[in-house]
Description:
A: mainly alpha; B: mainly alpha; Four Helix Bundle (Hemerythrin (Met), subunit A); 2 domains
Amino acid sequence: MPPLPASVPLSWYLMLSAILFALGVAGFLFRRNIITVFMSIELMLNAVNLSFVTFSYKLKQVDGHIFSFFVMVVAAAEAAVGLAIILTVFKNRQTLEIDEVSSLKN
Amino acid sequence: MDALLFMIFAAIAVVCAINLVVQRHPISSALSLVGVMGALAALYLLLGGEFIAAAQLVVYAGAIMVLFVFVIMLLNAGTEARGRRGWAHYAGVPLLLLLFGLIACLITRRMPASEDVVFGQFTKGGPLDIGRALFTTYLLPFEVTSVLILVAILGAIVLARKEID
Lengths: 106, 165
């Protein structure tokens, strides 16, 4: 095993962000539970936040952190409204399966 | 030391994210997501984002995930049923690898010789600088965000309230 370098390149952080984003897309597409799909969206938002903070480090400016902060705030609002919608859907249909909520289809 | 910490927390984040995708029970997915968020907070600290790391722990891992766990418990969500396997289950993984490959190719093309991340190089991520930028340059978006939060609260209450007959 080669000796571990003292520090890692910036692109590794971006690569980790890409991995997390791809996994979020996978969860969004493969899972059938509404809540898990919603959590996958949160995972994607987190991956994008990591990119923002990494570029903020690269450019030595604080703006990326501000954007990351705004993403967090919007995610909080989105989680509140989305979970309320999920509650309503469950109250009306007694199911959390995405495939069964298809009254707009056809 | 930086590399070791990055490896540890990146490994935690990736393992937890994979666990989020493959677990069938929503509670397991939610706890995995908390793990991802905690690991990401540590990575933000390595990148010099002290305020954003704290906000990540408090807002994401603290508030949003508690909301998720509450809803999962409230709805008594059970294990996901094993459905029929369409073409998406077979074509999906290669397509996702393709997506990841494209992003990785773009990153390595655009940033071939990127500098190393050294802890302590970027010190403008504290509450002082964040607050200064937030209340001078980004004052209008900040205020608009407060209106957005208000609308979201009202919408959530209207959607989730009990029916009044």
